[in-house]
Amino acid sequence: MDREKFSLFLQNTANSPFWVLVQKEIRDHITSIRFNILMVIILLTCIGSLYSALTSIRDVASNIDSSKELFLYLKIFTISGENGALPPFITFISLLGPLLGIAMGFDAINSEKNNKTLLRIMSQPIPRDYLILAKFTGSLFVIAFLVLMLGALIFSLGILIIGIPPTFEEFIRVFVYLMMIVLYIAFWLALSILFSILFKQAATSALSGIAIWLFFSVFYSIIVNLIVTAAMPEDLFQANQTQAMNQEKMTMYMRLSPNYLISEITTVLLNPGFRTLGPVTMEQATGAIPSPLGISESLTIIWPQVFGILALCTVCFLIAYAIFMRQEIRS
Amino acid sequence: MSNVIQLSNVVKKYKEVTAVNHLSLKIKKGEIYGLLGPNGAGKSTTIFMLLGLTEPTNGEMFVEGVSPTVKPIEVKKRVGFLPDHVGVYEDLSGKENLTLTARLNGFSKLESDYKADELLEQVGLSHAKEKKAGKYSRGMKQRLGLADTLIKDPSVVIMDEPTLGIDPKGIQEFLEMIQRLRDERNITVLLSSHHLHQVQQICDRVGIFVHGELLAEGDIDSLQQQLLDKNSYQYEIETKESADRVAKLLTSQDNKIQTTIYDGKVHVTTKKRDEGELSKTIIDNGFHLLSFRKMSYGLDDIYQQYFQGGDTLGSGKI
To answer: At B215, which helix (H) or strand (E)?
Structure first.
């Protein structure tokens, strides 16, 4: 009986206009050349970094103290190949992830507008927000699927090649990390959807997204460095305290950037040895047991960062939503 | 309910421009109503307001008794809308475009499939239903658009310049299709156009709409009455004898008659309809009547006259 109800519920959901739009969105993405090119690039880089990580994993494993936990799978994600020829998976994904988000959203609304399909959809008996919600949900589904598939690919190749199954904690850590990556990409997706509403031309919207991405991934740290060092007196005359304060100031500014937030999240999740993200004084460090943190402790450390990205994503999407709901349909 | 579409005193202002100015309109069930006006007259704005896509600044409107401002979704369930340029998803086939609309209207996959096939057949696109809609010609897209508006089984169809950019043969077919629709399904049709001849051909009633105001309304005959000098009739008379003499004769018979001579023919304007007296007078007086014709102004002349008037009216306003 319950099962019948459930299948009826599923059927109704699949037939509801919102999910029809989501299905269309997903279909559009996975059949689009743009998404497939990006997917191939991401897959290739992923396999490349995986290959280099797996070839050097033996050395890493032999270097680790036998008393410590291995966390081999976390190493696969984070170590770079011999002589650093290929950067690790996390570097690739945090670089290409935003690009994926931007690529999937930059023409979400303006292409519908330019094609006049917006008018056609809007003259159907559906609430106006269905369209933008479906755009976001559909793209998010595709992104989540792709990222989780990459995780699965790494795990399965790892098992095949090194022959050791991942521990439960490793699995959870990687899973949480991948979800964080999805969230991070969702932020870029929301941003690019916002641009697709603001700008009539798809090219303008794409470029604006890429400009912001470049700004945060390349220039932002330079600018923060410049500002903080300019505001700080010569090292010689500094007390330790002010030095620490400056360091704190720097991280504070850096944390305004989503890229920095995700890098902190990555560090803590994939290196259980990381105990804190800020500077540590000697007093704080004394007496600490040098063992890896449990998953819940790691999560406690990155909680603010997670909410930071979530907030950024929500704010972007809400602005986009509000503008879209108020916009005149006719261009 | 006889009035399917009803607008009373609707005003729409965009910042400084008044797009629609105190428009009142009633359209009956099963009627084909033509909104005739030049570009920028506010036709599209009116249509958008009827669909609940834009809100009027002032005034009330009802579509089948439902206000599109308050319940746009209810209205959109009943109203099919065909824009001037039909937007199609170019990567989807014609049929997929249709099934998408059907499913957004709450039909199941199976129903949508069936309806799409049926309608594609009706609009004559079944040969191209698996073709990508991006490869359709302009006329085909418009026909696909018509199928798209009909797939939700609307009781009202609103068309915004539906024949724009289709070749003459296509237009003819399209207009016939609209007419057939009305006859078969008793659908109420509101269509806007600036092509007088098309409107004249299929519309039961026409509203002439210039700069947000409805100048005149009615069927073609009553429009002529409204727009031309009221209660005056014109006849053209050709005789074997010179036109001067005929003119003199007629004015001497009835001083209310005005005559002008044009191209060797007498044009007579009277206040009352001629019931044979004119020709009788002419023949009785020994003239040889060659032709006698009631002159009616086509909508063409009216249209010209009004749109010229409309322009000066408008340029004074803006």
So the answer is: strand B213-218
For an interface test with B, which of A13, A124, A131, A133 has the most B Cβ atoms less than 10 Å from its Cβ? A124
Instruction: Supply the pLDDT for residue B305.
Output: 63
The structure tokens listed for A148 are 């989780």
Is residue A95 assigned to a domain?
yes
Residues A164-184, mean pLDDT to the nearest whole number: 91
A28/B108 CB distance under 8 A: no
CB A73 within 8 A of CB A170: yes
Q: Which chain A residues in 10-49 lie under 8 Å from chain B, judged by CB atoms? A: 15, 17, 20-21, 24, 28, 31-32
Across the interface, whether the CB atoms of B88 and A127 are under 8 A apart is answered no
Cα A141 to Cα A98: distance, rounded to the nearest angstrom: 15
CB contact under 8 Å between B86 and A120, yes or no, is yes
Query: For domain B232-295, which architecture applies?
Result: 2-Layer Sandwich (3.30)
CA distance A26 to B60: 40
pLDDT attached to residue B214: 84
| A38 within domain boundaries | yes
Q: How far is A115 from chain B (nearest CA, A)?
A: 6
Least CB-CB distance to B83: which of A15, A17, A119?
Answer: A119
Dihedral sign, CA of A11, A12, A13, A16? positive
Residues of B in contact with A127 (CB under 8 A): 73
Cβ–Cβ contact A326 with B under 8 A: no
Domain that holds residue A59: 2-279+290-326
Q: Would you say residue A249 has pLDDT above 90?
A: no
Q: Which of residues 85-144 of A touch B (CB under 8 A)?
A: 112, 115-127
Tokens representing B189? 């049709």
Of the candidates A150, A145, A143, the one whose C-alpha atom is nearest the C-alpha of residue A77 is A150
Averaged over B95-124, what is the pLDDT?
92
The residue of A11, A15, A20 whose CB has the most chain B CBs within 10 angstroms, and thus the best one to mutate to test that interface, is: A20
CA–CA separation, B66 and B49 (whole Å): 13
Q: Provide the number of structural domains found in chain A.
A: 1
Top CATH class, B3-88+139-226: alpha beta
| Mean model confidence pLDDT for chain B | 83
Average pLDDT in chain A: 86
Asked whether residue B271 carries a pLDDT value surpassing 80, the answer given is no
